[in-house]
Design brief:
Elements (H helix, E strand, L loop, with lengths): L3 H51 L7 E3 L11 E3 L6 H4 L2 H14 L8 E7 L3 E6 L3 H6 L5 E11 L3 E13 L2 H8 L1 H60 L2 H4 L2 H32 L8 E4 H10 L2 H6 L3 E6 L5 E4 L1 H17 L6 E8 L3 E7 L7 H6 L21 H11 L3 E7 L3 E9 L6
Parallel strand pairs: 8-10
Antiparallel strand pairs: 1-2, 3-4, 3-6, 5-6, 7-9, 10-11, 11-13, 12-13
Helix pairs in contact: 1-3, 1-6, 6-8, 8-13, 9-11, 11-13
Length: 443
């Protein structure tokens, strides 16, 4: 798995990168196609208006016949130019014609400015919309299209274009992009989903690796924790079968006591695992009732006298809270305090010094459990309440347990609608700060 994981990450990353590159290339091509499409439609719309204008109001050619007195020595054809578009239509009428032509091409809401010019010695503007020149001169953002207005005179013989229609579209590229807005947004959303799926996949794989490691550690710890009492019980049973032990009531009682003690130890381990299973299923049932927290703390601490003596440790109690009445489940709250103290004892050095302090706020009873043990790293502080997680101490078996104690503490605190946090310095000790809501009598 260690060798395959980097390969999987690289392959998935390359796949995601490839999809993003293809998406960008496809979007660029789509924008270019849409630009060409807009240009074709705009040109077609202008041409249709130019054709309509060229077929209205032409002045026919006139011929002077040869007879009698002649003004000219030969037949002479001359053409009278058609009336200018500006003399036949208003600016608004031309604007409406262009707008209708654009709408017919599917560009109903396209903003534009227009002008009509005549081909004199210098190009003259007959008419223009209000902002034509400002848009026309913005060659960076706008796009201008034009087409000639052909005049069919002299027996339907096309004459050179005399007038031209110009259309300038402001922010042409922006208009093209806006027309593809939903496509662009969908593409971006799809890309984000793909990237999110990639990170989620990698995160899931990492979590599975960590879970597999934690599972293996848990199995090893559980095997060790159950194997030790079983071996002790087996030895005690063998000793009880010895005739010399059987004839000595004191030794028999001693070995029987070992069997009972180790049996209780195994039952405790099994109970811990069952509690974790109940927590997973959210089947933990709490019986809330008024409870004096100080009495519970003193009772639990008394149970650790022998362990403290073995480590040459001491404990201080500073029960300063004026109000220690909380609403709690006595069994689980007792287990909670027991786990906090047990954790301090297990992860302590010699000369353990344990300080338990209480005070109260308007809403909470605050309990602090402070020790001068081995402390925790920042990584351990972050993960201390994860199920099966155990702080590394250099020896997998020097600290007994399944890594369920702190997870159980966090779940019980949450069930009591309380809060818990940890302050720790590696090599100097840790402090667990617990906030439990005070009991409120019903009115």
């Amino acid at each position: 798995m260690k060798k395959i994981f980097p390969v999987i990450v690289v392959l998935v990353a390359l796949s995601v990168l490839g999809i993003i590159v293809i998406q960008i290339s496809w979007l660029n091509n789509l924008l270019r196609v849409q630009q060409d499409n807009y240009e074709i439609k705009i040109t077609k719309a202008i041409s249709s208006v130019a054709s309509e204008l060229s077929n209205q109001g032409p002045v026919p050619a006139m011929r002077l016949p040869r007879s009698g007195m002649h003004l000219f020595p030969f037949d002479f054809n001359f053409t009278v130019r058609p009336a200018l578009i500006s003399s036949r239509y208003t600016t608004n009428e031309i604007y409406v014609k262009l707008q209708k032509a654009l709408s017919k091409e599917g560009l109903k809401n396209l903003p534009f400015e227009f002008a009509i010019t005549s081909n004199a010695s210098e190009m003259e503007v007959e008419m223009q919309s209000k902002y034509f020149f400002s848009v026309y001169n913005d060659s960076i953002n706008s796009r201008t299209f034009y087409t000639p207005v052909m005049s069919e005179v002299n027996n339907d013989i096309p004459q050179p274009a005399f007038e031209h229609i110009y259309i300038s579209v402001p922010n042409f590229n922006k208009e093209v992009r806006n027309s593809l807005l939903w496509v662009l947004l969908s593409s971006v959303a799809f890309t984000i989903i793909v990237i999110a799926a990639f990170f989620l996949t990698v995160k899931t794989i990492i979590n599975q690796r960590n879970l597999s490691k934690i599972k293996n550690d848990f199995i090893n710890n559980m095997t060790h924790e159950l194997k030790t009492p079983l071996a002790t019980i087996s030895l005690a049973v063998d000793a009880l079968q010895n005739s010399k032990v059987q004839s000595n009531p004191e030794k028999s009682n001693y070995f029987s006591g070992i069997i009972r003690q180790e049996n209780k130890r195994m039952n405790k381990h099994v109970e811990t695992i069952l509690q974790a299973a109940l927590m997973d299923k959210n089947e933990l049932k709490l019986n809330f009732a008024p409870l004096n927290a100080h009495a519970v703390i003193e009772k639990v601490l008394n149970g650790f006298k022998l362990q403290l003596e073995e480590k040459g440790g001491t404990a201080e109690l500073h029960l300063n809270a004026k109000n220690d009445l909380i609403s709690a489940d006595e069994v689980h709250f007792t287990n909670l305090i027991n786990n906090l103290i047990d954790n301090a004892v297990k992860y302590s050095k010699e000369d353990l010094h344990l300080i338990i302090t209480t005070h109260c706020t308007t809403r909470y009873l605050v309990i602090q459990v402070q020790d001068n043990g081995i402390g925790m790293s920042k990584e351990t502080v972050k993960r201390i309440f994860e199920k099966f997680y155990r702080a590394h101490t250099g020896n997998v078996h020097n600290v007994k347990g399944f890594g369920l104690g702190m997870s159980y503490v966090k779940q019980v605190v949450d069930a009591h609608q309380g809060k818990i946090k940890v302050e720790s310095t590696l090599g100097k000790g840790s402090t667990f700060i617990l906030d439990i809501p005070l009991y409120k009598a019903e009115a």
